[in-house]
Amino acid sequence: MLRQCEGSQAVAEAIGLCRPQVICAYPITPQTHIVEGLGALVKSGALANCEYINVESEFAAMSVAIGASAAGARAYTATASQGILYMAEAVYNAGGLGLPIVMTVGNRSIGAPINIWNDHTDSMALRDAGWIQLFAEDNQEAVDLHIQAFRLGEELSLPVMVCMDGFILTHAYERVDIPTQEQVDQFLPPYEPRQVVDPDNPVTIGAMVGPEAFMEVRYLAHAKQLRALELIPELAAEFKQKFGRDSGGLIRSYRADDAETIVVGLGSVNGTIKDVVDEMRNEGIKIGGVSICSFRPFPTAALSTALGRAQRIITIEKSLSVGIGGNVSHNLRMALPDRNTTVYTVIAGLGGRPITRASLKKVFRSALDGLLEPVSFLDLNLPVVQRQLERERLERRTGPAAEAILRDLNTLPAAVH
Amino acid sequence: MFEVRIHGRGGQGVVTAAELLSIAGFEEGFWAQAIPSFGSERMGAPVVAFCRLNECEIRSREPITSPDAVIIQDPTLLHQVKVFEGLSPGGYVLINSSRSLDQLGIGEFVDKLPRGHAACLPATELALRHVGRPVPNAALLAGLCAITGRLKPASIEAAIRRKFKGEVGEKNVAAAREAFAMFANVEVKEGARAHAQAV
């Protein structure tokens, strides 16, 4: 049913419709409303046959999810930011063991400096943990991706992270079509595990593997992700057939067929990018957008086709690989057969900095004019940075950088951006 | 697209106001997007929330910098935050105050807006009377509908009832109804003012 509601509430209801059997939760902003919503569903009895476990930390949340999944239960948890780092070891274990846990990441920056707002640093930090990573563009897609995630993960026996932008999506009220239980049941069969802890048929899940076999086990994880490259579009097609809308898939192109310039982004920023593409198309500029939904597995072939004819590619990246620049552009170069294609990395929106149409348009124009640096930072306050660099050149004991920048800016924390 | 920016203080419910407005817009078939500001939210600190209403899908996620209307939940913000920043020349201003626009010292500013586009509404008083708590949202949203003519009173009431069940919802609806009534009776004064005074 079509509803106007908060993204977190919509996602909580969608997960409820997926009939999880174990939900383990530790609250962290901006994901908290999701697990609160699920807690209410379990308590009211609307979500039956589900054990809701309050755990003492994110490490425990993922550990409980691993145990539950290994015991044959459909397991779910959610986290963000420092929380995903705190559970990092267990995240790798879930990936390596191939347990089809679904986890929402309400994307948020990672400290220091401490910051509760949106960027993609948290998901990117765990991109190599062996999980599938899907990024939602809006709240409808966040709902739909969770339904697809359980099916996808269980088919392949791989865990899936559904990444949705913290605050921008988790706290946004917009219209969302929440499917019916019948619809979800028709798409998502009960969990049939490939491996399960069963006293009648004892197995070791998590056996020690030495040099003679470690590479092979890791290769199988890679092969499964490559298999996901086929399965993700198949499931998106089946989803469309059953639910009547496009959601998920590997990538989505927007006015990119004849585009000389293509802007690539992950998650909710693609909405803003599309608006800018329309504005610039009206001015006669051949520009388009490509949204990457599946970051892991990375859709190299699909991107190669979608980007092949573009002269220049601009990636809008909400995470900084410190010391080199972009994570997305770094991966994306694998998809470019023509090494002459110029790739511009634009780091944007870190720690919740708004990504405005005006700023995007300016940076796209500067790429078109050949004036953009290979790696640039959208709306960076250069004078403030330079002042600090100058201080550090002149003095030894310059103190904490974050405090110095705040002092220079004389910020009121809640001032309108 | 119709864009509304709501200024208040942490605890007054700017986020709830934006959410209610988006539900009311949805009730009338608009695409609506409500988003909180991405700033520190402490009790009493200046906070902002945004709501967009549109005939078609809203894709942009940027904060609203050129609002068509601003709602100010606390008039002391007038001296602390640039509440009118980016307001469109034909925009609307609604302030929660039992004082007049002139008494608040912004008469000259709102005179630049079209006739009837600015108003004060004693929304906190209405809330205290009907709800028993200083929660000005229901009355303010009714006031916004009254001065802009954008949404129907019934949609605001439906949004209030969806968000607040039972008695609390009905009390807020009563506050909204009195706000509508105040605007229905008011004569648009000289210049830009539509000024609903406390009865």
Structure report:
- The complex is a heterodimer of chains A (417) and B (199).
- Chain A is an alpha/beta fold and 417 residues long.
- Chain A has three domains: 2-243, Thiamin diphosphate (ThDP)-binding fold, Pyr/PP domains (Rossmann fold, 3-Layer(aba) Sandwich); 251-377, Rossmann fold; 384-417, no CATH class.
- Chain A is 42% helix and 17% strand.
- In chain A, strands 3-2-4-5-7-6-12 form a seven-stranded mixed beta sheet, sandwiched between helices.
- The radius of gyration of chain A is 22 Å and the shape is globular.
- With 199 residues, chain B is of the alpha/beta class.
- Chain B has one domain: Pyruvate-ferredoxin Oxidoreductase, domain 3.
- The model of chain B is unreliable at 188-192 (pLDDT under 50).
- The chains are: A alpha/beta (417), B alpha/beta (199).
- Chain A binds chain B through residues 4, 6, 117-118, 138, 165, 167-168, 171-175, 268-269, 271-272, 274-275, 352, 354-357, 412-417, and chain B through 5, 10, 15, 18-19, 22-23, 25-27, 31-42, 45-48, 58-63, 65, 81-82, 85.
